[in-house]
Amino acid sequence: MSSVQRLLICLIPILLLWSCHQPEPLVVEQIQKNGAPSSLVLTGPLHHPDILVDGLSVFDPIRRDGIETDEEVVHSLFEFMSNEFFVWNAPIGEELGTYLYGYGYGLCHMQSKVLAALWHERGIKGRLVSWPRHTMAEAEVDGVWRLYDAQHHVDYSRKGLPVSFSHLKNNHLLIEDLDPVGYGAAYWHQLIENAEVEKDRIRKTLKKPDLSLQKGQQLVLRRRETNARFPLFSSEQPHTAPRSHLVPLFELALRHQFRDEQVQLHTRLPVLGISLEGMDQVKVRISGGASLEGDASEISTLLHGETRKLVFEAPAGSQLTVTYGLAAWCGNRLFGADTSKITLLAQRDSGTIAFNTTASAPLVRLGPLVQSAGDPQLFQATLSWENLHGEPLQYHLFFDELSSSFPLEVWRYLGRLDWEWRSEVHGASGQAVLPFRWKPGASSPYRPEKYGTVFFHGRGPHLRAGLSQAILHFDRASTKPHL
């Protein structure tokens, strides 16, 4: 008998014994029947929990069942990126999973990278087409590459003919039929001459958040308010950082009661900020980085946007709360749709899951931005409210356009409306329809002539962080919309 055979014989009983002691997944079902959900609370110990809504994980962009062909997978993930992933100037240098699960936004290059990585996770080859002013993604379906522009919501194969960048490069006449964005001949000539198709396809993984909890730890998932004290994550570009309320975001507040003086935390989600009860001073070591010591508010600012492993030190008895950002599409799985079945999967059997519901909580929402059928420059947005009472409340509503040159002036400010809720006029529940007229901004080398994105967002009490955007293709010469 060889040494390898003897080793295998010895290992078999060990492996069987090990498998018998592996913890069974915990399944906890919570039926949501009455009241508006205000938060979801997980209590440890939990080991790598996953949350399912009607059978779909909040961390899965699309269902894995019911989609059979590679073409369906490719197109479904493209639709997800176009509709659920927001356009915003995100920080650079993070793992792809952080952009997908932590931010939920990015500009064209990051959108294309994440899209290609999502294809790769489903066993489909993806790669980037990049040039100095724009990035798109290609997927290989049945041996043929297909071109997609996630930021501009364009599937270049939408007419049934598989179109790759090489098709467009070798046949300029295709552009006239397949380019609803309206880049124009000069723009396409520059792109074709300067763009590069990456030889190596995207193989990067999208690491999901690790929401594991120790005994006594608690994780609270809630919607982000527009007046939240922590700013939105943004790279330091002019005209972008102050608009901390622009993109929808959820918050995960992890609460830890110090029994020992040290705790290690690593969710892979970006830190919004921290707070400390029972003590003003805290120490923290950043994996691969600096050691920090100071008051909680100072450390909170320094840790903003941090995604690396953190080791906190504080006296026993004090309580630490670390608030993380969670992409809007993940949170909307729990709070954005009517559902009756929430399932928690974990590998330990003593954790809990619970919904906090409040039937009468004040709530203000931004409705969709709708373009007038008869006047393409006229839009209507809806502000709705429930359970408002008391003194008048002030709301500031903003309109922006993504139309100026990149990267120094990504956003163009269009206008602002100030609106006041008054109990005797508007009542505890109701809605207001707000008209807004948009005049297309001047085109630039980055923004195509026929393309426009209008954003409606706001600040005010009880207003859920969020944005309503209208993506349209616009013929500036004839003022005829191409939707």
Description:
This protein has about 475 residues and is an alpha+beta fold. It has 3 domains: about 180 residues, no CATH class; about 140 residues, C8orf32 fold; about 120 residues, Immunoglobulin-like (Sandwich). Helices cover about 20% and strands about 35% of the residues. It has 10 helices and 28 strands. The strands form 6 sheets. Strands 13-17-11-10-2-19 form a 6-stranded antiparallel β-sheet. Strands 8-7-6-5-9 form a 5-stranded antiparallel β-sheet, covered by helices on one side. A hairpin with a 4-residue loop joins strand 7 and strand 8. Helix 2 packs antiparallel against helix 4 and helix 3 packs across helix 4. The radius of gyration is 25 Å and the shape is globular. The C terminus is likely disordered.
Secondary structure topology:
Elements lengths: L2 H18 L5 E5 L5 E8 L6 E4 L2 E2 L12 H15 L11 H8 L4 H14 L4 E6 L2 E8 L2 E6 L4 E2 L9 H6 L2 H6 L6 H10 L1 E2 L20 E6 L25 E9 L4 E4 L5 E7 L3 E6 L4 E5 H8 L6 E4 L5 E9 H8 L6 E5 L5 E7 L4 E4 L3 E2 L6 E9 L6 E9 L10 E10 L1 H4 L3 E8 L13 E9 L7 E9 L4 E3 L1
Antiparallel strand pairs: 1-18, 2-10, 2-19, 3-4, 3-18, 5-6, 5-9, 6-7, 7-8, 10-11, 11-17, 12-16, 13-17, 14-15, 14-16, 20-22, 21-22, 22-25, 23-24, 23-26, 26-27, 27-28
Low-confidence stretches: 10-23, 404-409, 478-483
- Going across the major beta sheet, what is the strand order? 13-17-11-10-2-19
Supply Rg: 25 Å
User: What's the tally of helices?
Assistant: 10
Biggest beta sheet attributes: 6 strands, antiparallel
